[in-house]
Amino acid sequence: MRVSTADLSSGSLFPAAIRATSPHRVLGRFAAVVCIVLAGCGDNPPPALGGDPDNGRLLLRQFGCGSCHRIPGVAAARGNVGPSLEGVATRVYLGGVLPNTPENMVRWIRNPKQFDPETAMPDLPIAEGQARDIVAYLQGLK
User: Fold this and answer.
1) Using CA atoms, how far apart are residues 69 and 83, in angstroms rounded to an integer?
2) CA 76, 98, 133, 140 torsion: positive or negative?
3) CA 57 – CA 16 distance, rounded (Å)
4) How many C-beta neighbours within 10 Å does residue 112 have?
5) How many angstroms separate the CA atoms of 135 and 50, rounded?
6) How far apart are alpha carbons 45 and 47 in whole angstroms?
7) Over the stretch 76-135, which tens digit does the pLDDT of each residue have?
8) Euclidean distance between CA atoms 136 and 49, whole angstroms
């Protein structure tokens, strides 16, 4: 459909409710809509699986994960046995064997030997909720 300048200047392309208001009001409404839309486009998506990333960071320290892994934001987490966990959310596989999804990351954290019996990562007594909190923190390390 071709639009002429006459169509634009007459306002015939716009609904009557918009044509009946002043240009300043239309612009103000448009700006409000743009702000609402952009507010939903932030860099901070909700935490993975509803976990608490702040508690996850504390749990990573409590369980001693930094003894084997480098973990940004976790005090004294400078281990070199396992891989750095920076950017772990962007990796294709966990432990080289399990497709990387938040759900699978919870499963891997709770029972890595189920997926790779020869992994150096120990099975630790981590509850489901604790694993979700840890995953929420790790998912933020992109």
Assistant:
1) 6
2) positive
3) 54
4) 20
5) 10
6) 6
7) 999 999 999 999 999 999 999 999 999 999 999 999 999 999 999 999 999 999 999 999
8) 7
Place of tokens 């400078």: 78
Using only C-alpha atoms, the chain has a radius of gyration, in whole angstroms, of 25
**86 Cβ partners below 8 Å, 6+ apart?**
70, 71, 72, 141
Tokens coding 65: 């994960």
Give the pTM.
0.68
CA dist 138 → 27, 39, 122 (Å): 42, 24, 18
Interior angle at CA 40, CA 36 and CA 42, nearest 5 = 125
